[in-house]
Write a structure and sequence with these properties.
By secondary structure, this protein is of the alpha+beta class. It has helices spanning 10-20, 24-34, 54-63, 71-81, 155-168, 209-229, 244-254, and strands at 65-69, 99-112, 119-133, 136-148, 182-193, 235-240, 262-267, 287-289, 292-298, 304-310, 313-315. Helix 1 (10-20) packs antiparallel against helix 3, helix 1 packs parallel to helix 7 and helix 4 (71-81) crosses helix 6.
Length: 332
């Protein structure tokens, strides 16, 4: 199984995930997701969903732009995602593309398990794209995990990877002791209806706290990523050419006319201090300002909103003493 150690290998990761959806194990994952999606009818009824099944997953991957997120940017993303406001909608976000495949150079850990509500999930890659669920326009988000069989799996990880592992050994438990290496597996899919704010519950039959919180977290994560990469003062995005052989394999499986570039996202280095210029105020000290989100008013007549991340910075004159006040947070 491929572990992309450089951005140039991203096309091969896409090829592996597209081919993965041809396997019975991954088809089972798609079938499980289908059972969770229903119409808004007060009496939920199972309906066909365009984004459900193997082919739509492969189409989303084939149409996706390729993104490599550096380790520092992964840390910033994890720190920033939980602060995205509940009232943010799809239209409030500056999307870099209609769809993309993102690989995280440092796995995102401590995410919410939709089955238990515990913060035990690790995500190594996500793919997003636009489509329809029960005729409702949505952004769909599929999460992927890279399992390290050599390091061993805890019971929760084993439950997630079980179908893929069974396929590797041909359903023969006696072979389990000989498994080694890496294993990609899909973790599931969440939808973000275009008209719903992040804080809205998912439009599924199951409405317990775990799946609601997990779905909202997926939406926040994707919104935070899109907003951060659209902020030049926070993220540096540069395009790089993929490995030539990998690009050819990627073109063949997608039947594309040209190779896809890879966008590399790194944290921009902000200035260490702000003098407070533009205000007729003389500050006696400097103080740190924490990173935070603003749903800023933009556009003609300030009639639109745009989700914006304000990077942590130090405010006050550069030659003034730094004062750091203790902050006590009460969690209720």
């Amino acid at each position: 199984m491929l572990v992309p150690t450089t951005p140039r290998q991203m096309p091969d990761l896409r090829v592996e995930l597209i081919q993965g959806w041809d396997s019975p194990a991954w088809r089972y994952t798609a079938a499980v997701n289908e059972r969770l999606a229903f119409t808004k009818n007060p009496t939920p009824q199972r309906v066909p969903i365009p984004l459900t099944g193997v082919i739509p997953h492969q189409v989303l991957l084939a149409d996706a732009s390729l993104w490599w997120v550096s380790e520092e940017m992964c840390d910033l993303l994890l720190a920033a995602k939980d602060g995205v406001p509940d009232d943010v909608r799809v239209a409030d976000v500056a999307w870099p593309d209609d769809g993309g495949l993102i690989y995280f150079a440092r796995p995102l850990t401590g995410l919410i398990d939709s089955a238990t509500g515990e913060r035990s999930i690790q995500v190594d890659a996500i793919c997003w794209g636009r489509g329809f669920a029960a005729a409702i326009p949505v952004i769909a988000v599929t999460s992927y995990r890279l399992f390290d069989l050599d390091a061993g799996l805890n019971p929760e990880e084993l439950a997630v990877a079980a179908t893929s592992i069974a396929e590797m050994v041909g359903g023969r438990p006696r072979s389990m002791g000989h498994l080694s290496g890496k294993l990609w597996a899909p973790l599931g899919r969440a939808e973000w209806p275009i008209e719903d704010p992040i804080g809205a519950p998912p439009r599924t039959l199951r409405q317990d706290d775990a799946i609601v919180e997990s779905t909202q977290e997926d939406r926040r994560l994707l919104a935070a990523f899109a907003a951060l990469v659209a902020s030049p003062g926070i993220a540096d995005v540069e395009e790089t050419r993929p490995d030539r052989a990998a690009a050819r394999r990627d073109q063949r499986i997608r039947r594309a006319s040209k190779p896809a570039d890879v966008r590399v996202v790194r944290v921009h280095r902000p200035p260490s201090a702000s003098t407070g210029a533009g205000r007729d105020v003389t500050w006696s000290h400097r103080w740190p300002v924490s990173g935070h989100w603003r749903n800023a008013r933009v556009g003609k007549g300030r009639s639109q909103r745009r989700l914006t991340w304000v990077h942590p910075y130090t405010k006050g004159p550069a030659d003034a003493p730094l004062v750091v006040k203790e902050t006590v947070r009460v969690l209720g």
